[in-house]
Amino acid sequence: MQNQKILAGFIVNGAGSVYELEIVINQMRNVVQKTAESEYARLLTAEVERLVDSIAMNRVKRPENASILDAAARVTKDRILYSDRNGCETEYNLYIGCQVLLGKFLDKKENSVLLKIVAPNDIYMKPLGRVKSLIPYNVYTDEIKKGGKKEKLWADLCVQYPQDVPLASNLINYDVLSIDPKEFVYRSPEERAGLYAKENVLNRLLSQYACGGEIPPERLMEYLLKAEDRIHYQDLAAEVLKQTEDLKKILPNITYSLVSKSPLIERLAPQEEEAAPDQASEAQPSSEEAPLSADAADDKKEPDAAPDQPASAG
Question: Is residue 298 over pLDDT 90?
Answer without folding.
Answer: no
